[in-house]
Design brief:
The structure is a single chain. This protein has about 240 residues and is α/β, with parallel strands linked by helices. Helices cover about 45% and strands about 15% of the residues. The chain contains eight helices and nine strands. The strands form two sheets. It has a seven-stranded mixed sheet, with helices on both faces. Strands 5-6 form a two-stranded antiparallel sheet. α1 links the parallel β1 and β2. α2 packs antiparallel against α3. The protein is globular, with a radius of gyration of 17 Å. The two termini are about 25 Å apart.
């Protein structure tokens, strides 16, 4: 059976500040895609909203107070970013689904036909972390990789605490103590792992891996089942 992997790519990865780093990152991502397809791997990719989502939500806040409506603005931005990745992979001839699915069940079905399926958000109140965990569940993947702009899960927020310690191995219950579990984030807010995603991973017995997606080589190591620099969370 062809192995299946689910990767959540943070929207921030698509927009590094320096254009040279942006070109390098996209080039390495294309090389990785060719390698994975050549080894008959199937990859479901869920893209976050990043800066486009935050800017759009800030703009809409001037007129909209509904969290659900603001979430729909953010979801549209994730699908825009997903289209960018989809078209980049199609441009180099990868076997990519030609649509951006709006549900994880639809994505799981498309993985039967394609090596790559790219999607964004689905439902207000669910971040793309949660969508990726749901896709792992629906596609029968054992692990969901969360590639973002941080290298590890920390015992506390490193932006606020200088003594925050990075963690390499956790159980899902230990992660829940750090992130919380089950409570949706506010529109446009971010966390190393969404508490809703943590709850769904626990319920579905999905292992999680958190790593710095700015380093494509680390993502490749995790996809190949090799030791990687990051945090592994066992369900």
């Amino acid at each position: 059976m062809t192995s299946r992997h689910i990767v959540a790519l943070g929207g921030s990865l698509l927009r590094p500040e320096e254009s040279e780093k942006r070109r390098e990152w996209f080039g390495q991502l294309r090389q990785l895609a060719v390698h994975l397809e050549g080894n008959e791997r199937k990859i479901g990719i869920v893209i976050g909203g990043g800066l486009p989502a935050r800017e759009a939500i800030d703009l809409a806040k001037n007129c909209i107070s509904s969290s659900e409506k603001l979430d729909r603005v953010g979801i549209a931005a994730t699908r825009l970013n997903a289209t960018v990745i989809q078209q980049i992979l199609l441009d180099i001839g990868c076997n990519v689904a030609h649509e951006i699915p709006h549900t994880t069940s639809q994505s799981a079905e498309l993985l039967e036909q394609y090596n790559f399926v790219v999607m964004g958000g689905t439902t207000p109140g669910h971040t793309t972390d949660a969508v990726a965990v749901a896709l792992a569940r629906d596609a029968g993947a054992r692990t969901c990789i969360i590639a973002t702009n941080v290298s590890h899960v920390y015992d506390k927020d490193p932006r606020q605490f200088d003594d925050a310690q990075s963690l390499t191995n956790l159980t899902i219950d230990q992660l829940a103590e750090i992130t919380g579990i089950g409570e949706p984030l506010a529109p446009g807010a971010s966390a190393v792992i969404d508490p809703v995603a943590v709850g769904w991973a626990k319920d579905a017995c999905i292992d999680l891996a958190v790593l710095d997606g700015r380093q494509i080589s680390i993502l490749e190591q995790a996809l190949d089942g090799q030791p990687f620099d990051g945090t592994l969370i066992n369900s």
